[in-house]
Inverse folding.
């Protein structure tokens, strides 16, 4: 009689083996993607407690960043940077509670608009004025040369017109320079305008005599 082969017993279910033992990383959990909350985060309120050291740092910061040079936001940000456990809101509440003067409004600084100056137009105007004054000075040089020539030729009477032109040009230049001349010491020489005055008096007398006739 043939014998039957022994039937194999069903093997017990093996527990799932971890793949980490073979050098494989386990799949990340959902909690790995969530941000961790640090226990040192400060959630400020109006009643935040201040230590004596923090108050000392606050007063030092208010002195270092005065209200007349910094706006409120800039002051609070700079002071809060020196206080690890205080935020900008804490500093703002504390400064207001202590009664410190507020800084300049930020909107005022941003809305301040400087008057527009056209530099090209200003430079062009200055160049034209400089050219005009240079032409007057050159005209005076020509007048002096003409008067010198008249003196050499015995024509002193013809110098009156040149002297009048010379004086008018000088007055125009001095009025154009304005306050600049006040800082310049006066020349040691003075112009002799007696001939011009005599000429003007003679013209006045001649005009008066014509009217009387």
């Amino acid at each position: 009689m043939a014998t039957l082969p022994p039937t194999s017993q069903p093997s017990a279910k093996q527990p799932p083996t971890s793949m980490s033992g073979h050098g494989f990383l386990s799949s990340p959990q959902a909690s790995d993607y969530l941000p961790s909350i640090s226990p040192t985060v400060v959630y400020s309120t109006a009643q935040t407690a201040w230590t004596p050291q923090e108050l000392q740092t606050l007063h030092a910061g208010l002195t270092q960043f005065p209200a007349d040079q910094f706006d409120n936001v800039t002051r609070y940000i700079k002071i809060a940077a020196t206080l690890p456990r205080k935020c900008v809101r804490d500093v703002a509440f504390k400064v207001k509670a202590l009664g410190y003067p507020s800084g300049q409004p930020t909107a005022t600084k941003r809305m301040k608009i400087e008057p527009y100056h056209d530099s090209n137009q200003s430079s062009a105007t200055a160049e034209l004025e400089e050219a005009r004054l240079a032409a007057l000075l050159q005209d005076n040089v020509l007048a002096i040369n003409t008067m010198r020539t008249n003196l050499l030729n015995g024509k002193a009477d013809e110098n009156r017109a040149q002297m009048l032109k010379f004086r008018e040009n000088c007055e125009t230049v001095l009025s154009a320079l304005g306050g600049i001349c006040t800082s310049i010491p006066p020349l040691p020489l003075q112009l002799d305008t007696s001939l011009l005055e005599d000429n003007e008096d003679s013209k006045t007398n001649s005009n008066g005599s014509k009217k009387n006739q």
User: Anything to note?
Assistant: Helices lie at 52-64, 72-80, 88-98, 106-111, 119-152, 159-177, 194-212. The two ends are 183 Å apart (CA to CA). The chain has seven helices and no strands.
